[in-house]
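Preliminary data (for renewal application), magnesium ion complex.
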Amino acid sequence: MKIISIVVPVYNEQENIIHFYREICNVMKTTNYDFQLFFVNDGSSDASAELIRELEEKDTHVKGLFLARNFGHQVALTCGLDHANGDAVITMDGDMQHPPELIPLLLEKWEAGYEVVQTIRETTEGVSWLKKMTSSCYYKVLNNMANIHIQEGGSDFRLMDQVVVRSFRRYKEQARFIRGMIGAMGYKQTQIEFVAPKRFAGTSKFSPRKMLHFALDGITAYSNLPLRLSLYGGLLSGLISFLLVLHVLFIKIFTYDAVPGWATIAASILFLGGIQLTVLGIIGEYIGRIFAEVKQRPLYLLEREPENEIEK
Ligand code: UDP
Ligand code: MG
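Predicted structure:
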């Protein structure tokens, strides 16, 4: 019997874990597969860890991976993927926004020979107008900049064949934008669309800060365009100031007028100062990421190593 590993990152989801576990058991019963359910506890400060430990004791399908602190969603997913050794691996959120009822459909596609089955959120219920708009703008900007295509509405709810998971483990980058990484890996991929319901309980664990970091990771990982735009901006303002100098010289040499306008000078200094700081900031984003990469710190630390550990 083939084994399906399900990987679920969990950060303060005490109201969701049991419900999610039951739903997964119900769905997996209807399939012809055995399964392992990996809960990756991402340094929760509520009772999530205890709940996972209890489930682990009661049911051998459940395996807990406990990170030493909150490392973030993408790293928690990576930790799960490092340990999941089923014939296929499904990653999904533990808040029921990735409906377990879709699992049989993912498996069907896998049986049909696809090695990656990506899900695309058609809409998300109960999400604010602002979040929808910023997300849609973000994907438009990203796709115009990046050297890969990342579908709008792409989520981290996907099935991967073990072959793909093994290849994925060879990527050691620190700043992770997994949906971009998988998309760029190749293999036989397909997509299915779904409507993401509201969270079962609790609130989103993505603060605006985490969201912004994630968004910047996506852009800096797949595009140098911000740096190139800085260069073009610099060249353009250089050209404009050169024309201004010509204008000033012309007035000085060929007329008896003085060149008026301290306001123009103040404005242009402020304008250029603003551009310079922005460009420095952009360069800083890239350098910060280079710094994180060269340190080669471990991506995550586990509280304790699981017994079934296969690869590090
Ligand atoms: N999550 C995590 N670490 C974090 C933030 C979130 O493991 O630092 C988990 C969270 O428990 C959930 C999944 O990632 O299972 C998706 O998070 P959430 O539902 O808060 O994101 P949203 O659906 O609002 O984008
Ligand atoms: Mg969610």
